[in-house]
Design goal:
2 domains, 5 helices, disordered N terminus, alpha+beta, SH3 type barrels, BirA Bifunctional Protein, domain 2, 5-stranded antiparallel β-sheet, biotin, 14 strands
Length: about 290
C-alpha cells in the first residue's frame, strides 16, 4: 500500500465518518503535554503515513528533531513491529506514535532497557486511564484478556537514530472490533472491556507515564535495579513462570521455563537439562499458562 504524505491535523477535522473514532486534537495535546522543563518538546499529529518510526528516525538523523519530539499518526500504512512484521489497523482505531529520546547520560549498554521501560510505562498509563488489566510479554508486547483468552493489543519497536538518539514506536489497538482483527490472537482495549476508549486522555496518560519512567531511569544512569525498572517489569511480565519456546536467529529454538529478566533485560530460560540461558533477541511463544 502506498504511503500517504504526512500532514498536520487538528480537532476540527471533519473528514471522518466513524462517530466512534473522532480524530485526535493536536492543539489540546500540545497544551496538555508540552511544558517548560518537561520531556515532551513537540507533538505533531498527521492524518496518515507509512511509519512514524521511519519518519522520526529520518528527521532525527537529519538533525530536524530534538529530544521529546512526538509523532502521532491517525493511520499507518506500513507500520512495523519486531522482526519486520507489518502492523496495520483502520484509521483512528488505535494509538500509533513514536518518540525521540537522547539518553546521552546513560551508558549505551543500558539502552536495551528502553523498549522494556516503554512497555512498563504504557501498561501503567493504560491501567490508569482505560481501567484495563494489561500484562507484558517479553520483550515488548502488550497483552489484554478478551473472553478469558490472552491477546496482543499492542507492540513496541525501538530503533537507533544517529549516534545519540533512540526512536521508540508504540502501536495500541484501542477500538478495533472483532471483525477488524488482523489475526484471531489480536485484541483491543475495547474488546477487553475498557472503561474509556477516548484516545486523547489515553495518549496523555501513556506519555506522562513514559516521561515519569524515563526520567527515573535516566536519573539512575540507566541502572534497572536502582530505578525500580527491573522489579516492576518482572512483576508485570506474563512470560515469567511459563514454559516458552524461544525462536532464535539461525533457525534455532530453545524450550524451557522463563525464570527471570536479568540486569541486561534478557529473558533467562531454564532448560530441562538444568541450564539457565539468557536470551537477548528472539521470538517468544508461550506454551502454557503461568
Amino acid at each position: 500500500m502506498a504511503c500517504m504524505t504526512p500532514r498536520d491535523v487538528s480537532g476540527d477535522d471533519s473528514r471522518w465518518s466513524d462517530l466512534d473514532r473522532p480524530p485526535l486534537n493536536a492543539a489540546a495535546l500540545r497544551r496538555g503535554l508540552v511544558r517548560e522543563g518537561g520531556l515532551w518538546s513537540g507533538i505533531e499529529v498527521v492524518a496518515g503515513t507509512g511509519s512514524t518510526n521511519s519518519d522520526l528516525v529520518a528527521r532525527a538523523t537529519a538533525g530536524k528533531a530534538t529530544e521529546g519530539a512526538v509523532l502521532v499518526a491517525e493511520e499507518q500504512t506500513a507500520g512495523r513491529g519486531r522482526l519486520d512484521r507489518q502492523w496495520s489497523a483502520p484509521a483512528r482505531s488505535g494509538l500509533f506514535f513514536s518518540v525521540l529520546l537522547n539518553p546521552a547520560d546513560v551508558p549505551v549498554a543500558r539502552w536495551g532497557w528502553l523498549p522494556l521501560l516503554t512497555g512498563v510505562a504504557v501498561a501503567t498509563g493504560l491501567s490508569r486511564a482505560a481501567g484495563v488489566d494489561t500484562a507484558l510479554k517479553w520483550p515488548n508486547d502488550l497483552l489484554v484478556t478478551v473472553g478469558g483468552e490472552e491477546r496482543k493489543a499492542g507492540g513496541i519497536l525501538a530503533e537507533r537514530a544517529g549516534e545519540d538518539g533512540v526512536v521508540v514506536g508504540v502501536g495500541i489497538n484501542v477500538t478495533l472490533r472483532e471483525d477488524e482483527l488482523p489475526v484471531p490472537t489480536a485484541g483491543s482495549l475495547a474488546l477487553a472491556g475498557a472503561v474509556s476508549t477516548d484516545r486523547d486522555p489515553l495518549l496523555r496518560a501513556v506519555l506522562r507515564s513514559l516521561e515519569e519512567w524515563y526520567e527515573r531511569w535516566r536519573a539512575a544512569a540507566g541502572d534497572p535495579t536502582v530505578s525500580g525498572l527491573q522489579e516492576t517489569y518482572a512483576a508485570g511480565c506474563a512470560t515469567l513462570g511459563r514454559t516458552v519456546r524461544a525462536e532464535l536467529p539461525g533457525d534455532r529454538a530453545l524450550v524451557g521455563e522463563a525464570v527471570a529478566v536479568d540486569g541486561d533485560g534478557r529473558l533467562v530460560i531454564a532448560t530441562e537439562e538444568g541450564v539457565q540461558k539468557p536470551v537477548g533477541a528472539g521470538d517468544i511463544v508461550h506454551l502454557r499458562p503461568a
